[in-house]
Amino acid sequence: MLVIVTGVSGTGKSTLGALLAERLGLPFFDADQFHPAANVAKMSAGHPLTDEDRIPWLQAMADQLVESGKSGGAVLTCSALKNSYRKMLSVSPSIRWIHLTGDRDLIWERMSARQNHFMKAGMLDSQIALWEKPLTGYLLDITGTPEQLLDASLHYLKTQPMNMQMGVIGMGVMGKSLALNLAEKGVSVSLYNRYVAGKEEGVAQKVVDENPEFSNTAAFEDLQKFVDSLEKPRRILMMIPAGAAIDAQLDALIPILEKDDLVIDGGNSFYKDSERRVERLREVGMHFLPMGVSGGEEGARKGPSIMPGGNAEGYAMVEDFLGRISAKDKDGKPCVTYVGPGGSGHFIKMVHNSIEYGEMQVLAELTHLLRFGFGCTAEQVSAIFADWGKGELKSFLLEITADLLLFKEDGALLLDKILDQAGQKGTGAWSLTTALEYGIPYSPLAESVNARGVSGEKAMRVAFSKTFQHEFQKVEDSLESWLPKIKAAYSLARIINHEVGFRLMKTVSDTKDWKLNFNEISRIWTNGCIIRSGLMENISANYSDSVSFFETAGVKEQVISGRKALAELVGLGLTHGFALPVMSAGINYLLGRITAESSASVIQAQRDYFGAHTYQRKDDASGKFYHTNWI
Ligand SMILES: NC(=O)C1=CN([C@@H]2O[C@H](COP(=O)(O)OP(=O)(O)OC[C@H]3O[C@@H](n4cnc5c(N)ncnc54)[C@H](OP(=O)(O)O)[C@@H]3O)[C@@H](O)[C@H]2O)C=CC1
Ligand SMILES: O=C(CO)[C@H](O)[C@H](O)COP(=O)(O)O
Predict the structure, then answer these.
(1) Which of 98, 264, 463, 538 has the greatest count of CB atoms below 10 A from its CB?
(2) How confident is the model at residue 552 (pLDDT cuts 50, 70, 90)?
(3) Dihedral sign of CA atoms 431, 434, 438, 442 in order
(4) Does the beta carbon of 353 sit less than 6 angstroms from any atom of ligand 2?
(5) Model confidence over 531-542: pLDDT tens digits?
(6) Which residue lies with its CA nearest to atom 14 of ligand 2?
């Protein structure tokens, strides 16, 4: 067992540490032994140490802990005032921390009574100022005698034998992968899955059994025991379905949790539900973090993009862990950031998914047009996509589409055996209703939701295809002549999808005063998430709140050059029998946004004609409203 006793000078660390070492039969080390001579001289001269001075000292102790861990353990006493110092000493997830705290005057009294110690009593205040509330371990008040403190410490070590650093609820696709990712990054994790007799039995235990390489995991299917296994304040990540399941899980958790505990919802919950839940937990003194996670199963296991929002204090409790498990951007920075208050983390994940829907639909539209209009084989389409993916059009979704077009089952393309009915879990539709609520044009991404809806009406589609004798027409022109236009059209359709999504996010952020940082949001979307792409890297590098996204460097040129190509491709597809809802809506959206003289005068005239709704005039800049008696 490795035990570290911390506290400011004068709290009695060395006394307690030595007593503990004796009782546990472990070697004892005091931090003073590890100070380089220069540090001792500095402190003796009454000068406080800088963070830089502390690095070699902390490193020497960390090395000692690693060594001691190999031979049964040790007790170390060290001031470890800041969480960053404690992090350097966290060489193993099984370290047991005892943090001594107490009244300043009592500590002062004890320090003043000490002889021959190089730390001057007057430095106490600087130590107290530096001390940060620990994120983990046992806070022990020093008021008692050394023997009483020893008894309390031994009781803690005995009754809290596991003290896992994090708990994960839900051992499905995402929960299991995130739990194993945490374990791999040195975070001890308790795994919980509900027990349903005859159906869901021993689910968490199976995960532990199948991954014996991780000695820092423990399985539970009793919620109370799971909660008890966690160090306080507890950190619990829920990875279960959005909606009623989250509220039911909170109903079960809240009565057995305590003040300052943290619950994270890492699923795809609707952001308005999350806002309500932030309040619910705040009222009982707990922290709630609505947190978007993207990357699917592989991302969750190896490095997802993580979008936590809500309670900032709660975020501080897991910032280090999330940084460890997340993907890293091109500069090595973790693809995680505190997004903002309320439900903003889930809100941006919702819009992320909406862009994801649009991107997927465009690729589906192109795949169909290339295969059944231009007569390409699946391999040829895959090769075209793979080629695009080598340049600035690179994206994760393009890459996996190129890949799945090659996947064979029993010698035949698996894709052709998959029923053409697309599922959806809510995020796309919620983005659309949010856009409607805020009056933001959303047609391209809305069409990706509608397309999934239409796909679901399979029986009717089959019947109507006969009634209306629908067939795809072969395109007569050569693919070679169209390929540059198809590429330009694809590029522009993607730009439009992103513009639509970012515009919604900006509007809602401004209205709710969330102050979302879009350079940072796009940065954490450059890796780990499903919509990671070259375009996202461009957005991250060039996003500016002050101009429209269409005017961004490198984007404006593509809007200009791709416009005709997208219109032509949509025209070609429609006249050859292909539904291209997102690309069609995309070119309509773009033309609408760049048309100075729109057809809306007709709408205003009609409204005034039938309903006396009034209209404003181009020849009266005052904004006055007019009504005409049209009849
Ligand atoms: N799959 C993905 O690519 C991504 C999913 N998400 C989101 O993450 C969340 C989890 O998704 P995912 O892991 O894919 O889902 P899964 O269906 O794979 O797993 C769901 C988990 O939740 C548990 N569960 C189901 N219903 C309840 C309930 N009423 N109470 C308690 N536990 C319950 C299941 O337990 P049991 O085994 O007992 O049924 C299972 O452990 C969802 O919100 C999803 O939208 C987010 C990003 C990506
Ligand atoms: O969040 C995700 C990816 O980012 C999930 O995979 C989500 O389930 C995708 O949405 P849908 O199921 O509605 O297609």
Answers:
(1) 264
(2) confident
(3) positive
(4) yes
(5) 999 999 999 999
(6) 424
Q: What is the CATH number of the domain that holds 122?
A: 3.40.50.300
Q: Does residue 239 sit in the same domain as residue 258?
A: yes
Same domain? 30 vs 102: yes
* 400-437 residue pLDDT tens: 999 999 999 999 999 999 999 999 999 999 999 999 99
The dihedral built from the CA positions of residue 41, 44, 47 and 53, taken in this order, carries a sign that is: positive
Range of the domain at 566: 352-594
pLDDT at 119 (0 to 100): 56
The answer to whether position 347 is within a domain reads: no
Count of domains for the chain: 4
Residues 283 and 194 grouped into a single domain: yes
Task: Give 352 Cα–ligand 2 centroid separation in angstroms.
Answer: 10
Within a domain: 260: yes
**Tokens 């027990």, residue?**
195
Q: What is the pLDDT of residues 270-293, one digit of tens each?
A: 999 999 999 999 999 999 999 999
Whether 435 contacts 442, CB under 8 Å = yes
**Co-location of 588 and 624 in the same domain:** no
198-208 pLDDT, tens per residue?
998 999 999 99
For residue 613, give the CATH number of its domain: 1.20.5.320
Give the position, in ligand 2's atom list, of the atom nearest the Cα of 294. Answer: 4
Q: Is the ipTM of this complex over 0.90?
A: yes
User: What does the block give as tokens for 261?
Assistant: 């505990």
Give the distance (Å) from ligand 1 centre to CA of residue 194: 11
Closest atom, ligand 1, to C-alpha of 269: 43
116 pLDDT higher than 60:
no
Report CA(167)–ligand 1 centroid distance (Å).
15
Distance 176 CA to ligand 1 centre (A): 10
Q: What is the rounded distance in angstroms from the CA atom of residue 250 to the CA atom of residue 284? A: 12
Q: Are 321 and 248 within one domain?
A: yes
Q: Are 87 and 320 in contact (CB under 8 A)?
A: yes
Strand partners, 4: 76, 97
Can you tell me whether residue 528 is helix, strand or coil? Answer: coil
Which ligand is the nearest neighbour of the Cα of 201?
1
Catalytic residue among 221, 275, 319, 356: 356
**What's the pLDDT at 29?**
97
The yes-or-no answer on residue 132 being catalytic is no
Pocket of ligand 1 (CB under 6 A): 170-175, 193-194, 196, 200, 203, 239-242, 245, 248-249, 267-268, 293-294, 296, 425
Looking at ligand 1, which residue's alpha carbon is closest to its atom 3? 296
Ligand 2: distance of its center to the CA of 172 in Å?
14
Interatomic CA distance for residues 503 and 442, integer angstroms? 9
Q: Is the CB of 427 under 6 A from ligand 2?
A: yes
201 given a catalytic annotation: no
Catalytic residue among 13, 221, 231, 349: 349
